[in-house]
Amino acid sequence: MSLNSVRPWRNIYRRKSRQIHVGPVAIGGDAPIAVQTMTNTDTSDAAATIKQVSACAEAGADIVRVSVPDVASSTALKEICAESPVPIVADIHFHYKRAIEAAEAGAACLRINPGNIGDETRVKEVIRAAKDHGCSIRIGVNAGSLERHLLEKYAEPCPEAMVESGLEHIKILEDNDFHEFKISVKASDVFLSAAAYQALAEATDAPIHLGITEAGGLVSGTIKSAIGLGNLLWMGIGDTIRVSLSADPVEEVKVGFEILKSLGLRHRGVNIISCPSCARQGFDVIKTVETLEKRLEHIKTPMSLSIIGCVVNGPGEALMTDVGFTGGGAGSGMVYLAGKQSHKLSNEQMVDHIVEQVEKRAAEIDAAEPEQTAAE
Questions:
Q1: How far apart are CA 13 and CA 5, in angstroms?
Q2: What is the pTM assigned to this prediction?
Q3: Which letter, b or e, does each residue of 329-341 get, where b requires 16 or more Cβ atoms within 10 Å of its Cβ?
Q4: Are 99 and 291 in contact (CB under 8 A)?
């Protein structure tokens, strides 16, 4: 992100990592933090998986991971990779041959778990396939599946064991002259994850993929991920993220983007600033925001919208947003455009009118971008 000299307390200084590629998507270095999710369809059903991948891409996913547990899945993967609008990561556990098949099928990246992929000989075969087919690799360390010798050494999953696992695998890749890799050290425990990632960030310059694994359902998992990932991102750690939820993968993408948006690390779509509502509200804030979130999902242009129920904070919030609406009295409120009072509007007309104003402002921002690029 660009540094803010006026408000230095907003600055995040990202860890310096080397850059790799997952297909055409740059990871690490000065590249934007990528948002990833994972399909939950049967991978052997290529049509269903492609449909879900496309929905995730439409929601903003930069990369989508697909589980490849059997031959039928790796066979279908060729069609999935060919039809996918974003790079596909093949998720491999236990069967190293599935990784080789996935590389041959066109996967952009192979995710392998040091705890269950097999001995060094098998890893070398995976590396050879990745080299031959231009794949990157993600070393995916997980607290729930650490190698036996590390559990014997440390007695339980701990940050030291997770980082040691990752570094052992990095050594194998580098000893085989393979450097197109990123790494993750995930746990379902926020404290364990955060400590492991902080130690990992100091131990390697490889790009880091962030995640709190098995975080839970939509609400609990979102909170857990926001705490864990948010703090790491705030410290400048992380080059890709995946929010793991027991929910539709599209929801994972939405939550991931919201975490990045809240820290100013990525900007996509409408950022709605709204009050929790109280007895002072001049209209039904909760219902209005819920409706607007759905009506404005198609807007990809980064912009801001304030929806405030009364005049206590409404005018002040509207000063900082592209479009705003503040509740008043007698069934009407005030519309703000570019931070300034524009016109009054009845509550009945509010939603349709706000959607129109947001679409208009988005078109103006989009039209101005080519002019700004040309001037630069």
A1: 13
A2: 0.90
A3: eeebbbbbbebee
A4: no
